[in-house]
């Protein structure tokens, strides 16, 4: 798609040229204009402009269809950009965006699964340094995820979507490959933290980018990005199963680096996969900066140029519907309505959404560590530690999540259901699975309960990751998504610490109490969701 790397850096130079030639408000602000910009003058320019009425089809929207005097100038401009994306539909550019952002979701759980799969062999090799205590490895990775989600969440709104999109996979791939060469446990923990830092920014960035380039009638594909997550788990499990048993020592007493290379080969492989994704993002595909981000930064001319570039990438013969003349006309009309106060709907939903995220994400993280395994042991569930059984159970638990994500992506577009009701139902059912665990008394029961929980969790997450970016405006969309993700990452560290005192003696009764508490807390999630003030199905984002 890209003839040379030089074209990537030429884009910014071209954008400056367009901005300088953009007319009276070539800088794109559109906040001030001469009084001569009358409605008659605007209509005359529209009829003769290259992207004006002459290029419209019979079904195309017009300026008057889009303009809303109750919205801000930036929101009206953003609605015009959304209309352009709706008109061009799902082209080559949008398909590439969806796939590459899906790869970000893929490596999120690809790497999240890795510490649990390599930890036994790591403990054997570094036993003289850690004496069996491997907790710092997972803590370092989780800390990196938390910092990465927070940092890149804000970076995507400050430096832009484009470079954040590149940096997350670059950082994760470089440190991922380096992790296989760690000479001691402390070094491995530090590298794991940097891997987590890169991985942590993926979901808020990728969900934001996908949302801002898709047409409105294809926004279910934001939810469908979660299809890549269970694939990441399965691929990581398959790689580990193929490499670790073959190149593994049997105990700490006989373990050396030379006879225990399996976990290192696994990390090398995961790092190379991540590097290939970075290469595809940076060298093969040319990501254009999000027009919504550019509008939020006052760069109207650049935003309009991006629309033209996407049309060319899609090999479309259409011309853009709107020009800066439309932006100036919107400014003129809004000036006539100045003084009218308006509270954005996203502000209304903000508090409820954050509370809902905190409640849900704190409960679900019991499944991301050894806490659930300890609870089940306390209940008398026999643990078959053979490698074959372990990986078989991983497949049985995580594979159904693929179908749950697909089902969730389809359900959000069902009339009278939408995002909100689908999340209410799925979160209530998910909470009930904690009580199913109280009935599990065998490995088969544990696998069945875990698979059920993961299916419902995947269904919920697919909708949640699509819904959160939709309710925030483009100026803070990445920051809001990053903060929501940060809450989840913090919960993954805090939840086990909060749960441990409840079953410190590891009795069956204490295990039941921990499960009852987790289920009860999670039941607050559908209650919070029910009070969200509005849905987003069919709404244009701005």
TrEMBL record:
Start and end residues of each stretch annotated as Disordered: 1-63
Domain annotation Major facilitator superfamily (MFS) profile: ranges: 97-537
Coiled-coil annotated residue ranges, if any: none
An annotated GO cellular component: membrane
Gene3D superfamilies registered for this protein in UniProt: MFS general substrate transporter like domains
Any one GO MF annotation of this record: transmembrane transporter activity
Transmembrane found in the keyword field: yes
UniProt keywords, alphabetically: Membrane, Transmembrane, Transmembrane helix, Transport
InterPro entries given in the database record: MFS_dom, MFS_sugar_transport-like, MFS_trans_sf, Sugar_transporter_CS
Record carries keyword Transmembrane helix: yes
Subcellular localization: Membrane
Topology class, membrane: Multi-pass membrane protein
Transmembrane segments: 95-114, 134-156, 163-182, 220-244, 265-284, 394-412, 424-448, 514-534
Pfam families to which the protein is assigned, alphabetical: Sugar_tr
Domain of life: Eukaryota
Protein name: Major facilitator superfamily (MFS) profile domain-containing protein
Species for this entry: Sporisorium scitamineum
Gene that this polypeptide is encoded by: SSCI37080.1
